Amino acid sequence: MPSEIDLQIEAFLQSATTRLAARSVVAYREDLQLWQAFFTAEKISSLTDIQAPQLRHFLLRERQRGVSVRSLRRRFAALRAWFRWLRQQDPQITDPSRGLPMPKGEQHFPDWLGIDVAQKLLDTQPDAGDDWLQLRDQAILELLYSSALRVSELVQLQRHDLHLEAGRLRVLGKGQKQRIVPVGRMAREALQRYLARRPESTETALFLNRLGRPLGVRGVQYLVDKAGRERLGQRLHPHSLRHSAASHLLQSSGDLRAVQEFLGHAQIDTTAIYTHLDYQHLAQVYDQAHPHAKHKEQSHE
């Protein structure tokens, strides 16, 4: 017996035949049939049972199967068109797709370092002695990797944002959102050496340039690239250290939510893509960690 969802999808397609080209109707049918199959497999039969986490789960599973982002965008667009039509018929119907972002286009991942290569970068350091600039550069490398900072976040750091004894750092991220991140032992030691030699200055910025002014984004990019070429024989961007730190943390912990908070991401799917987590693993983490998935498991016990 057809479910409420089946009947409403068919009604939408019948309505579309009077408004859209035949090719568009065929495309809508193909995409909505995939959603139907997913809802059936999840034992979702009524409109009120459809929730945003389930829709996200479907998209992640499809990506795991190798479906391109372009195809996912089309499938998501079909779902949104269906819900728009449903709300035209009955404004009381809730549209769970409205809170979800359209799947992003194919992304170019920044270069990232394996654990051994990252270790080589940080362990290979010149004898800085009293050279505060070399001590600064090493502290920056350590901190970028230890706390997975964006370069824009690093150059905004103030002296009072750093709490060495507690091993934490207050960071001002995108959208002026603050978060507290840990600072690893090696980074703390590098920062202590730098701060001991940092020139006396009225500037409150944590990192200064050779003129005693706040270090800028270009300065950080230059020193990171210089370290990459000298220590690894390759070009290196600050974002690669953030990307590497997040990837290594996720590999060791498997805690996607913790990594999301660590990076300051608003959406967890950003974290999954950013850390090139394979989507099969992501689906497993979702099943284990998402409240809705847990609720479903408990309801079957």
From TrEMBL:
Biological processes annotated in GO: cell division; chromosome segregation; DNA transposition
Active site residues according to the UniProt entry: 150, 174, 239, 242, 265, 274
A family per Pfam: Phage_int_SAM_1
Localisation: Cytoplasm
InterPro entries: CB (IPR044068), DNA_brk_join_enz (IPR011010), Integrase-like_cat_sf (IPR013762), Integrase_catalytic (IPR002104), Integrase_recombinase_N (IPR010998), Integrase_SAM-like_N (IPR004107), Tyrosine_recombinase_XerC/XerD (IPR023009), Tyrosine_recombinase_XerCD (IPR050090)
Coiled-coil zones: none
Annotated Gene Ontology cellular component terms: cytoplasm
Gene Ontology MF annotations: DNA binding; tyrosine-based site-specific recombinase activity
CDD domains: INT_XerDC_C
Domain Core-binding (CB) span(s) in chain numbering: 3-87
Residue ranges occupied by any Tyr recombinase domain in the UniProt entry: 108-287
HAMAP family referenced in this protein's UniProt entry, alphabetically: Recomb_XerC_XerD (MF_01808)
Family as reported in the entry's similarity comment: Belongs to the 'phage' integrase family. XerC subfamily.
Job of this protein: Site-specific tyrosine recombinase, which acts by catalyzing the cutting and rejoining of the recombining DNA molecules. The XerC-XerD complex is essential to convert dimers of the bacterial chromosome into monomers to permit their segregation at cell division. It also contributes to the segregational stability of plasmids.
Assembly with partners or alone: Forms a cyclic heterotetrameric complex composed of two molecules of XerC and two molecules of XerD.
Record protein name field: Tyrosine recombinase XerC
Name of encoding gene: xerC
